[in-house]
């Protein structure tokens, strides 16, 4: 065994070294590839820039030559369509010159050429406009003589020369950058080749060491087989211990449930007594109101007619809910594991019942519980579904944002063979780092300013799993939370571990 341990240590050190070297080689290779890609993208951008400059200069040449052509046509035949062509062309030249200015703004020599180009274009515009005015006066000979003396052709040649110089400048810059890129790519290929060689060496060494390690592991197989022979007995012992612990938990739950039932029965009994006493008390207030109005105060009438019936209704609703929970705990304690009892459930009816049981609390804090109908129905365990929704809605009320009225919206949809319900609120929100941890037992998120033990959401996820579904959370601090419950539309039993 010491030899095996020594081999394992050597193997671990080599694997660690191989992982570090391989990771370093991969990082270098990825960085080199990313750098080469960035350089290629940069060169593509420069190539596009050059093409844009060339195309824009070609457009300027076309427009200036068109303007010159319109002048010559007008001198031959004074038709206003030539003048309109000139006007339209001049309107197009200004934005094209602006484009050239923007494209070459980072190159001082090109900026100087662009200024010369703009000056020649302006000189051409003035001479052409003068020719039009002279020709409109009817003196064709004077207009032609002015055309010859103004040197319209010289301006066009100057414009072409400036454009050619600018194109040559861009091409020269592009060639220099292309050569630099080729050198950079060559360096990148060398780096990638070196990284690949390191990976091959590390991989080969790892394969050889793994082969040796496997031989040592085969030599220790007999020892492991002997240990495994005793494993079954150890597992049986552990299972028996767990079963005894589970039995203790069941007995504890049974005792606690009975202890809870006793005061609950008292509360339910006294609620019935209050309900029965409310009728004669109401009659007494009505008689007092009729016979001695000064004795029947508004507070007494309001208490008898509204407050007491509403309070009794809330108490009865809450005790009934608690009675169902205690019955569920008793069934769990008797059976070890409660059997899922699927039945057809009207989700809207279940949610309305929960909203009614929470009406008093939500009214006190000014909260709104909105059930967006229609909601899909499902076949599942009613008690589990009620517990899930109750917990989610109560949490939304508990962790509301004090700066605005609480609003809880429940909506649902059918997705294939599943139904999905969203319980969305506008509360304080949950840190993204806690979106999964809040479903762990005894884990809570945010300021601990509300009572609770951190078991509600863990119980919710456990119930969702038992029903064949899942629950997830999406939330943003200060914006609210949305819990999405996905369940099979029709529950089908599955083997539970």
Automatic annotation (TrEMBL):
<keyword id="KW-0812">Transmembrane</keyword>
<dbReference type="InterPro" id="IPR036097">
    <property type="entry name" value="HisK_dim/P_sf"/>
</dbReference>
<dbReference type="InterPro" id="IPR003594">
    <property type="entry name" value="HATPase_dom"/>
</dbReference>
<keyword id="KW-1133">Transmembrane helix</keyword>
<keyword id="KW-0597">Phosphoprotein</keyword>
<dbReference type="Pfam" id="PF05227">
    <property type="entry name" value="CHASE3"/>
</dbReference>
<keyword id="KW-0472">Membrane</keyword>
<keyword id="KW-0175">Coiled coil</keyword>
<dbReference type="InterPro" id="IPR003661">
    <property type="entry name" value="HisK_dim/P_dom"/>
</dbReference>
<dbReference type="GO" id="GO:0007234">
    <property type="term" value="P:osmosensory signaling via phosphorelay pathway"/>
</dbReference>
<dbReference type="InterPro" id="IPR050351">
    <property type="entry name" value="BphY/WalK/GraS-like"/>
</dbReference>
<dbReference type="InterPro" id="IPR036890">
    <property type="entry name" value="HATPase_C_sf"/>
</dbReference>
<protein>
    <recommendedName>
        <fullName>histidine kinase</fullName>
        <ecNumber>2.7.13.3</ecNumber>
    </recommendedName>
</protein>
<dbReference type="Pfam" id="PF00512">
    <property type="entry name" value="HisKA"/>
</dbReference>
<keyword id="KW-0808">Transferase</keyword>
<feature type="domain" description="Histidine kinase">
    <location>
        <begin position="255"/>
        <end position="491"/>
    </location>
</feature>
<dbReference type="GO" id="GO:0000156">
    <property type="term" value="F:phosphorelay response regulator activity"/>
</dbReference>
<dbReference type="InterPro" id="IPR004358">
    <property type="entry name" value="Sig_transdc_His_kin-like_C"/>
</dbReference>
<dbReference type="GO" id="GO:0030295">
    <property type="term" value="F:protein kinase activator activity"/>
</dbReference>
<dbReference type="InterPro" id="IPR007891">
    <property type="entry name" value="CHASE3"/>
</dbReference>
<feature type="transmembrane region" description="Helical">
    <location>
        <begin position="189"/>
        <end position="210"/>
    </location>
</feature>
<dbReference type="GO" id="GO:0000155">
    <property type="term" value="F:phosphorelay sensor kinase activity"/>
</dbReference>
<keyword id="KW-0418">Kinase</keyword>
<dbReference type="Pfam" id="PF02518">
    <property type="entry name" value="HATPase_c"/>
</dbReference>
<feature type="coiled-coil region">
    <location>
        <begin position="214"/>
        <end position="248"/>
    </location>
</feature>
<dbReference type="InterPro" id="IPR005467">
    <property type="entry name" value="His_kinase_dom"/>
</dbReference>
């Amino acid at each position: 065994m010491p030899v095996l341990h020594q081999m394992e240590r050597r193997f671990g050190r080599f694997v660690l070294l191989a992982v570090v070297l391989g990771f370093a080689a991969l990082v270098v290779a990825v960085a080199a590839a990313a750098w080469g890609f960035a350089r290629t993208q940069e060169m593509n951008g420069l190539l596009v820039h050059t093409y844009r400059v060339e195309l824009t200069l070609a457009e300027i040449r076309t427009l200036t030559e068109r303007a010159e052509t319109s002048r010559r046509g007008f001198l031959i035949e004074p038709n206003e369509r030539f003048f309109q062509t000139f006007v339209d062309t001049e309107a197009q030249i200004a934005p094209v010159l602006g484009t050239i200015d923007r494209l070459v703004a980072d190159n001082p020599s090109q900026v100087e050429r662009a200024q010369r180009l703009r000056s020649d274009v302006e000189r051409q515009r003035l001479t052409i406009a003068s020719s039009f005015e002279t020709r409109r006066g009817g003196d064709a000979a004077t207009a032609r003589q002015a055309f010859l003396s103004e040197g319209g052709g010289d301006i066009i040649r100057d414009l072409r020369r400036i454009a050619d110089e600018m194109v040559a400048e861009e091409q020269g810059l592009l060639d220099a950058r292309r050569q630099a890129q080729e050198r950079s790519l060559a360096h990148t290929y060398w780096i990638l080749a070196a990284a690949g060689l390191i990976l091959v060496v590390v991989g080969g060494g790892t394969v050889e060491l793994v082969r040796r390690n496997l031989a040592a592991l085969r030599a220790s197989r007999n020892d492991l087989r002997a240990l495994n022979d005793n494993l079954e007995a150890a597992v049986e012992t552990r299972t028996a211990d767990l079963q005894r612990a589970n039995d203790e938990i069941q007995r504890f739950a049974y005792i606690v449930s009975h202890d809870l039932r006793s005061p609950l029965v008292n509360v339910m009994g006294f609620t019935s007594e209050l309900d029965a006493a409310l009728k004669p008390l109401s009659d007494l207030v009505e008689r007092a109101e009729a016979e001695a109005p000064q004795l029947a105060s508004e507070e007494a009438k309001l208490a008898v007619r509204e407050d007491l019936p509403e309070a009794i209704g809330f108490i009865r609703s809450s005790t009934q809910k608690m009675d169902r929970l205690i019955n569920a705990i008793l069934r769990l304690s008797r059976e070890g594991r409660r059997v899922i009892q699927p039945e057809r459930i009207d989700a809207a009816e279940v949610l309305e019942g929960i909203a009614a049981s929470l009406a008093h609390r939500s009214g006190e804090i000014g909260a709104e519980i909105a059930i967006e109908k229609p909601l899909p129905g499902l076949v599942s365990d009613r008690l589990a579904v009620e517990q899930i929704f109750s917990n989610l809605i109560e949490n939304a009320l508990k962790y509301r944002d004090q700066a605005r009225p609480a609003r809880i919206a429940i909506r649902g949809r059918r997705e294939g063979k599943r139904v999905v319900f969203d319980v969305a609120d506008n509360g304080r929100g949950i840190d993204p780092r806690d979106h999964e941890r809040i479903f762990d037992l005894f884990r809570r998120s945010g300021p601990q300013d509300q009572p609770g033990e951190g078991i509600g959401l863990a119980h919710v996820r456990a119930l969702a799993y038992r029903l064949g579904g899942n629950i997830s959370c999406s939330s943003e601090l200060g914006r609210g939370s949305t819990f999405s419950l996905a369940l099979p539309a029709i529950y089908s039993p599955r083997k539970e571990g």
